[in-house]
Amino acid sequence: MFNRKMRVVQFVACLSVIATATVLSQHVQPVAAGGAESSYRVLKPIQSGDLTLFPVVRADAKSLPANEFLTLDEGFKSGEVEVTEYGKVRGLIRSRGGVATPRYQGDQVNTLVLVNNSKRPLLLLAGEIVTGGKQDRIIAKDRIVPAGADPIDLSVFCVEHGRWTESSDKFGATAHNEAKSFMVQPAVRQQAMVAKDQQQVWNAVGGAISTMAEAAAPPLPNASPRTGTGDGGATAIHGNAASLGTTSYAKAMQSSAVSAKVDQESAGLLQSREAALATLRQEHAVGVVVAVRGEIIWADLFSDPELLSRYWVKLVRSYAAEGLGGGPSNGTATTADAQAFLDAPPHGREDSEGEVGVYRVREIKSNGTDLFALESLLPGTGYDVHISKLKLKGVQITPVTHLPNF
């Protein structure tokens, strides 16, 4: 239970009047930044197994604050960030006479309560996992929580199908050892960010657990390839729970067999982590474009190199998990391919939402991709803190010659 009783009361009393800035279905105005004027530049790739990462630098070499934000893992480690089930808050509603009346708020699958007691704003990324409570959950979308803010209702998706019994009062990070930290892989992140649907997230988790189980299983003589379950979701989750001993995405990733496979897939990017990060810092890399078996699938970009380095292990291990399933090769992704992916013109429509004076998230669908940009609106900021760009499955990216800035 939070120590700040008054802030909890204010939080619940104000739930219905939280100010948000939501602008729907506005046409995107493309910004001319083609060719050499492109805002981002892709460098030569680094590779490990089926995973290829293309470091990305800012073309303008603009310097932004490096330690402006607190990460979720850092907040859990210091104890400055607390997350609990929604039912832990005993809410207050206003009667017609203005008298506060107590009301119990039950636990909810897609809502948790978070408080940021630190002196820095908290950065949350879609796909980050919080373990504990009645189910493991993932953050549903990028957002910023101001320093010392009132407790917030945190939108989440369940990634542990079938459990609804409390394992702990509070939630925590996926790993105490930073070298083993992770978030959900791109296939699951995509369903949370794009589909925004719990069933689709469960389906993706089911496919991921199935793939993990197959990757971690010892080879069998004369074994025939496994076929899908048809639903890709709950059946796959429960069908593979026996081999991994869990229906939780987090616990599956933490199993020794799967963790070893992920380590093997990402060895070339993590075994010499400090050397790799030193090179990235020297090049002032702010992000990466991700390719698995030659197919470009994702990009994560940050406001500064230091922020990238703080998420490096977590992101790389999530990318490596995406490559566990094997599959046909798509050739070799080139630097030009990665640059074209970043610079594909945003002639789509923009949806945006956020909180006045705190943050805004813009989503742009266009040309077979979906882009999410988290902009900080806090005093002294006014810049994009994190950008995710992903390839929508089954869609071909159209090559372009004039490359506008996204």
Largest sheet: 10 strands, antiparallel
Task: From the alpha carbons, calculate the radius of gyration and give it in angstroms.
Answer: 21 Å
> What is the number of helices?
10
Number of domains: 1
Assign an overall shape: globular
Distance between the termini: 43 Å
Low-confidence stretches: 1-37, 91-104, 224-242, 395-406
Which structural class do you get from the secondary structure elements? alpha+beta
Helicity, in percent?
Answer: 25-40%
Q: Give the overall average pLDDT.
A: 80
Q: Care to count the β-strands?
A: 21
| Fraction of residues in β-strands | 25-35%
Distinctive features:
disordered N terminus; alpha+beta; 406 residues; globular; 27% strand
Please characterize this protein's 3D structure.
It is built from 10 helices and 21 strands. It is of the alpha+beta class. The chain has one domain (5-217, 231-391). Residues 1-37, 91-104, 224-242 and 395-406 have low confidence and may be disordered.
